[in-house]
Amino acid sequence: MKTKRVWTGLLTFLFFISFILAGLIIPAESPAQAGDPVAVKIQIPFSKGGKQGLAIAGSEISAYIMVENQTDEEQNVDMEISLPKEFKPVDLSSSWKMTQTGDSYILTTACTLAVKYENWFDLIPVRISSDIPAGEYRVAAKVKSNGKEQKLELPVKLATRREAADFVKISEILLPTDEYGKVDPRYQRNTLALKSSSSSNYYKRVITGAGTESTAAEHPIAHMAVKVANKNAEAASLLITAQLLNPETKKPVAGFRPPNAENLSKDEQDRIYAMVKVPGKSETLIPLPIYGEEGTIPTGKFTLRTTVKLLGSDAVLQVKDLPVQVVARDFLPAVITVSAFVLIAGTFGIINFRKQAFFDRFKTRWLIVIALFGTATFVTVNIPGTILWDLSHAIFGPFSFLITGLFNEIILYMLLVSLVLLIPQPGTVLLATVMRMLLSGVILGHFSPVTIMFYSTSGILLEVMLFIFGITRSSWVSRKLSQAGRADIWPAALVISLGCGLADAASAFVNFQITIFLYRLYYADWYILTYVLIDGFLYTAIGTVFGVLLGRQLKKVAID
Amino acid sequence: MQDINLTVRPGEFILLTGPTGCGKSTLLKLFNGLIPHQSGGKLTGQVIINGIDTLKTDMRKLTQQVGLVFQNPDDQLFATVVEDEVAFGPENLGLPREEIGRRIQEALQRVKMVDLYQAGTNELSGGQKQRVAIASMMAMQPKVLALDEPISQLDPVGADEVLNVIKELNTSLGTTIILVEHRIHEVAHLADRIIIMNEGQVVMDQPIRQALRDVAIFHRYGLRVPEVVQLFADLKIPEPPLVAVEAVKKLKNVFTSNKPDQPVRTPPAKGERKRVGEVVVKIKELRYTYDPSRGEALKGVDLKVQEGERVALMGNNGSGKSTLLLHLAAILKPGSGAVEVLGENIRTKDPCFLAGQVGIVFQNPDLMLFCDTVRDEVEFGPRNLKLSSQEIELRRTKALSAMTITDLAEDSPMALSKGQRLRTAVASVLAMQPRLILLDEPTTGQDKMHIDAMMDFLSKFHARGTLVFCTHDVETVIKYATRVVVMNGGHIIADGDPRAIFSSPEILTRAALKPPQSLLISQGLGLTPAFTVDELKELLVG
Amino acid sequence: MSIAQRMIRPTVNATFIHQLDARVKIFLLLATSVLVIFLDNPKSLLLLFVFVSAAALSARLPAKNLKILAVLVLLAVWGTMFSQALFYSKLPRTVLFVIIHPKWPVIGELTGGLFVYKQGFTYGAVQALRFASMLTLGLLLSWTTQPRDLLLGLIHFKVPYEVSFMTVTAVRFLPLVMNEVRTVLTVQRLRGYRPLKSSNWIKLIRTSLYTLKPILANCLRRAGTLAVSAESRGFRVNPEERTYWRGLEYSYMDRGVLWGGTVFLVGIVAVKVVYLLYFNGVYYTPFLRELYGLAKNWL
Fold it and tell me: A233 and A305 share a domain?
């Protein structure tokens, strides 16, 4: 993990450095002549790759000037640049002096180059008027060094915005692709599949004290590719950015930020970008990594906004919006659902295989007691539940469990636990649960794989817990439960409460995951946690304690 | 149980009797191998049924030998439909389908339930359920049918149906019948032989007519003999018959010379009885419907009950008597018409509103016991009424001693015997000191002794209070009611003095009531109606 | 008849639905429950619900049953809408109002805020269509089929005999136990205790104890007799060779529905699975592009 991070960081760094170096080393449009004491390079607009590019009306560009000592002597250099009046320098640094004459701006400055190959350069931000015609404008420069003068004249090709946009066009946006921009047809187009939408990381961070402020993801969650066509004869240096927006507000969505966002200006940290040079008369595919922070990215419909700018210019050539869908592929619910299924199938498979041995341990009277307790459970838990649960759900919404749970969980566990005390056998709870399931199937028509899974997981988990905690096998707990006096019963009662509480909490959690997976419903993590703790654990534990009391009294029932 | 030696010949009809806990039920379980095959315990000796040793034979064979029928018809039926219930046994035997079908048909014919083979078991009357239970045993084609108090929870009509079926099986099919019953007077005329058990031993085993010559031995074990037998014993006439018709014939011969037609006591005529005290219950044009498809349960009932009255509500199942009773406790609300209890219209009231004013003892008193100890149970009501602790204690002591359960105060009500549970339930109602007590068929499934004790108390100690109870038992009514209201099909068909009303054979028939033998004899002899043996004796010998 | 009584009682009629074999009905219910899991498209979910409702109407159920059904469906739909309005996590989402502000101390930090989202309501309504269909079909099944037919159907689906025997028993005692519960509550009222009128949960627990105790004691007593009665009729003496009096016979109609349903279900599931394989990047073939489109638009 760590080495990978370093590696990508290094790559990014190299990527940047190479761009900057490229801009400096490749010769300017105005080459120095041999024998001149200083070499002069001017480029307007400045661009990566050093080649003279296109200026666009109404944009801000940079004019680049560089002088370099070619001799062994000290050179005192005076520079004068004249820009057409449509090219207005802005934010000029104090070393420059500017005068306006007729139809041009004259900028002057001076510098001293002491040794050979010493150089001086500057970038002058220039604002180009927006309402000027396209065509060729000329920029002139005079450089005097130690009395020797050089004159340069540079044609600047100016295009209107519309023209420029015609030259450079996004022909296609591909999503998702591999890191080389190649589309894999197996994937749904325009869809980003997140590996996990679970925000469990949030709590992990809270617990480990890492703070709730999330750090950016370390590697891309997917890639996209932008296909750009350049019709112009010359190459175009472009800045391509992409960002995910809320389709309604058009505001950026938190969570999609590249790891190296610090390199961008504050208001641009929410987008991914690439700087590229597209050769003239060609089409280039530019792959872009998409970064996302696990846990903070919501799923749903978004707008992917891809913007193309000329590098060194703030002129936006093209904005292309693409509706994309972000889907979560959260594996936890799926994994839990599948495991629950395997567990259930396995348990019932084994029981079916050893059917006779399983049932032989139960006297007929016990079977009938379990059946009648099933009836009692159905009458006191399921029937009121069907009506009350829905009703209170309609009023209190998802928090109705706080109220209905009091009834349902507590009464249910009173019944189950008293039954287990009467028939402390492995299998009692499972049979009682199967009873409840079949009754609600036969009487209320609740036959569905999901209800079967709900009931079965709860029955199996409880059965396992009761066995582990020593209630359905011979242990001090079971002995205490059957023999201890009223004052003596508490330790054993607490053990069984803990067992039942854990079992029900676990099955409540599993039920949520099954619902999320099979019924595509959303629940906040804290909600699931509250439910599991209160309805699953607390209420169950309370019901269990009363179940112990009830069970011990029922043992006294005189059979006549 | 010890030292039981018993031989039963094929085709016999044996009446097995004895006080509660004498070992009758255990004996029955021995017959079809449930003991020792399905339950624990220690068994020595041999049980041989049809030449098969139950110890050495597997259950499957044994179940086909002896069929068992129990007291509570509800507790023997599993299926929701009659036909399934009867099929259950043959299915377990693994019989082919055609055979099962044949057996269902035959068994249902035997119990006269063929028409109802598709009926829901929950919709049957008690007698019908019990007949289905018998049919389901007969479908196993047992040689012996053992029945454990099969009529104790039935109304007279249902009991008659069941007894007729049993007799029919015995005579036409030759099935050996072992009938466990402590109400000898109800069944004595059907049996050939009587076995009395006490404390796990057989204390008497004789042909029934022979046995009944010695009434004393029955009394020793707290058993009642048929009224005719008692009458003949009291009159010292030998060879007692078992049914009223025979008795009338015999008595006619004995008493022709006497002057029997001297009324001992003139029962007060209907409506003459003084009604004092304020009106406790006032019902006007009461109508009620449970389920529109089944019609009205009450079709316009008018009734007034005054303080101090003890009113018996009688009538067959579905006559509306229970429905009426439930209105008095505000458990049901009138469909139309008005019900006023203790001056309050119950339409808008919760039963809780009547707490402390109206007490009800349900048919199954077990449902009334939910506290940890008998003491808590009795104090529960008074506590809810927020009485002072002295008052609570006073009431508890009084109620417990009235029901003779003071020594059980710290026991769990659930651990008590059936009779004790009934008394605890009644005590819990008495402790509220209600002005109106309602009893819903308290005589069902209870020993006569318990009923008498309870009714005795209620009529003595609750004399100023008002009592309304549903029952089928004419004797109880004669003994304790000051007034009887007979219902039929949702109407009141008779209302007045019990003696006057029971003297009308027509009303008795319409209400599906079983007249006591004394009444039949007195009517057969053309005497003033007598309702008990003592009265009849008085009429006959003065 | 109380609502509870009406809910557990099947109706008798001669409609198409009533006459279908119990196994076919169980199959249809299971098939539908699988279908609702596989379907995602609101149009299809709605279509399914409309279809199920039409089936319910064709069974000529009593008006009161339909009323219960309608109320239950509406409550279930609203309940789902409610919870999804709070927990909807897709974008875009519009906050209608704030329940817990994320900046509130402790609770805000723990929950990360709780809002009511407009889109959650619609999403919940669509998802609730699954529940609505299942609920309607479930009640339709239980209201048009005798429990014993359903149980017979279950035996054909290889439910162990002991279990189906227990279920028969449990069903048989349902009305009795319901009556008993009612009686126990009445007894409590007549002794001056208001069992259900309380917001105090300790008291509600006490009520549950007071109510369960007599009911369960009764169950225990009853079980003794029932066991003897069952055993004396040969219950469990040879479970392997047990025979059945009533068989279920498929009519032509049953077979038709069964085959039709199977083909339909398998078809839908297959298309969806193929689509999901494509969607999740497991398998793709250009041959099936039409199918992918169909699945995307309808499933």
Answer: yes
Beta-carbon contacts of residue A336 (< 8 Å; ≥ 6 apart): A509, A510, A513, A514, A517
Mean pLDDT within A288-308: 79
Report yes or no: A486 at the B interface, CB cutoff 8 Å: no
Bridge-based pairing state of the strands B176-180 and B144-148: parallel
User: Do A23 and A94 fall into the same domain?
Assistant: yes
Q: What confidence tens digit (pLDDT) does each residue in C30-83 have?
A: 888 888 888 888 888 888 899 999 988 888 888 888 888 888 888 888 888 887
List residues bridging with C131 in a β-sheet.
Answer: none
CA distances to A183, A230, C65, C123 from A177, in Å: 4, 22, 56, 30
**Residue of B32, B75, B98, B418 to mutate for C, most C C-beta atoms under 10 A:** B75
How far apart (Å, rounded) are the C-alpha atoms in residues A61 and A64?
10
pLDDT tens column, B143-188? 889 998 888 888 888 888 899 999 999 999 889 999 988 888 888 8
Domain that holds residue A247: 164-328
Give residue B272's pLDDT band: very low, low, confident or very high (50, 70, 90): very low
Q: Which of B80, B180, B408, B414 to probe by mutation at the A interface, max A CB count within 10 Å?
A: B414
- With tokens 């104790």, the residue in question is B152
β-strands B279-288, B336-341: how paired? antiparallel
Asked if B415 and A363 come within 8 Å (Cβ–Cβ), the reply is no
Residue C217 has pLDDT above 90, yes or no: yes
Residues with Cβ within 8 Å of B521's Cβ and at least 6 positions away in sequence, in order, are: B228, B231, B244, B247, B248, B251, B530, B536
Q: Find, among A400, A528, A248, the residue nearest to C118 by Cα.
A: A248
- Residue B493: is its pLDDT beyond 80? yes
Say if residues A197 and A330 touch (Cβ distance below 8 Å).
Answer: yes
Cα B378 from Cα B373, distance rounded (Å):
9
Distance (Å, whole) CA A529 – CA A537: 11
Which two three-digit tokens encode residue B353? Answer: 């509103």
User: Which pLDDT tens digit goes with each residue over A213-223?
Assistant: 444 445 677 88
pLDDT digits (tens, 9 = 90+) for A63-104: 888 888 888 888 888 888 888 888 888 878 888 888 888 788
Residue type, B458: L
Q: Is C94 within a domain?
A: yes
Window 495-524 of A, Cβ < 8 Å to C:
518-524
Residues 313-372, chain A, touching B (beta carbon < 8 A)? 363-364
Whether A140 and A212 map to the same domain: the answer is no
Domain that holds residue C280: 267-299
Residue range B50-59: average pLDDT? 77
Q: Which residue of C has its CA nearest to A399?
A: C83
The Cα–Cα gap between A230 and C242 comes to: 84
- In this complex, which chains have at least 3 CB pairs below 8 Å with chain B? A, C
Residues of C in contact with B95 (CB under 8 A): 243
How many angstroms away from the CA of C194 is the closest CA of chain A? 16
Last residue of a domain, one of C191, C221, C238: C238
Structural domain count of chain A: 3
Report CB contact under 8 Å: B38, A364.
Answer: yes
**Cα(A48)–Cα(A299) distance, integer angstroms:** 38
ipTM for the predicted complex comes to 0.87
Q: Edge-to-edge, what's the strand order for the sheet holding B483-488?
A: B358-361, B436-440, B466-470, B310-314, B483-488, B491-496
Q: Which residues pair with A222 in a beta bridge?
A: A290
Using one digit for the tens of pLDDT, what is the confidence trace for C224-270?
889 888 888 888 877 777 888 887 788 888 888 889 888 888 888 88
Gap from B226 CA to chain C (nearest CA, Å): 29
Among A328, A343, A362, the domain-final residue is: A328
Looking at residue B407, its amino acid is D
Query: Which helix (H) or strand (E) is B36 found in, with range?
Result: helix B34-37
Cα of B511 to nearest chain A Cα, Å? 32
